[in-house]
Design brief:
Elements: E1 14-18, H1 22-27, H2 33-54, E2 58-65, H3 73-86, H4 91-94, E3 97-102, H5 110-122, E4 129-137, H6 139-155, H7 166-172, E5 183-186, E6 205-208, H8 218-229, H9 239-244
The protein binds farnesyl diphosphate (FPP).
Farnesyl diphosphate binds next to helix 1, helix 2, strand 2 and helix 3.
Length: 248
Amino acid sequence: MTEQDIDMQRIPRHVAIIMDGNGRWATGRGLPRTAGHQAGVETVKRITEEAARLGLDYLTLYAFSTENWRRPDDEVSALMALVLSSLQDDLFMRNNIRFRTIGDIDKLPEAVRKRLRQCESETAANDRMTLVVALSYSSRWEMTEAARRIAREVAEGKLAPDSISEDTITAHLNTAFMPDPELLIRTGGELRLSNYLLWQCAYTELYFTPVYWPDFSVDDFHRAIASYQGRQRRFGKTEEQAARDNRP
Ligand code: FPP
């Protein structure tokens, strides 16, 4: 699979990725699980640079879920240290990439929170692509938060219950600043969404690969994009209607 196999005129605007298989990649090599996460950071850099080069507007990576807090303390600490150290790299400035986070950032250790905020402000004017990292994130958490904010606005008389639409919900989510992903990739062989972008993926094309995240190559990324480009997105319409008017 090379770049010739993908249509550069039909690159998705937004790709979301569930980076899975770091632990299995490491244990299969007799290494501690954290070595898998370390190798996973190299894949993050490789795929981020390639996504920017291909012309994506948004790449959203699931780095740490609300449920991941249940992992052993030493693995959680190692992951936090990795996030912190990988944000020291000048990947974003070098590639003109804006950095954003989604998730319950207040739950993260102070040093990580501080660095994330710094990175967001340092890169705010970069405009080639936005890399969004989901940290302490889950869709149910995000939707619950949105419901609370909407309820507060109703209670304060700022919002009429009958005026609440799908757009109101979308606008109260953490992801309000970006379009829905056209393509979601999950590495590591599991066939589920694991509480990731459930509202936003209503019409998203799903691509599952058994390749573990540390092994996920630029070629594998091209394969996922080529698979997306080979599908017809119908948004509930008939084949003929969709061919005529390919929009939700
Ligand atoms: C899933 O593999 C991967 C994670 C829970 C962590 C991924 C995080 C990184 C690669 C660091 C990212 C850093 C930045 C700045 C984006 P797993 O441990 O669930 O693998 P397994 O299913 O094989 O056990």
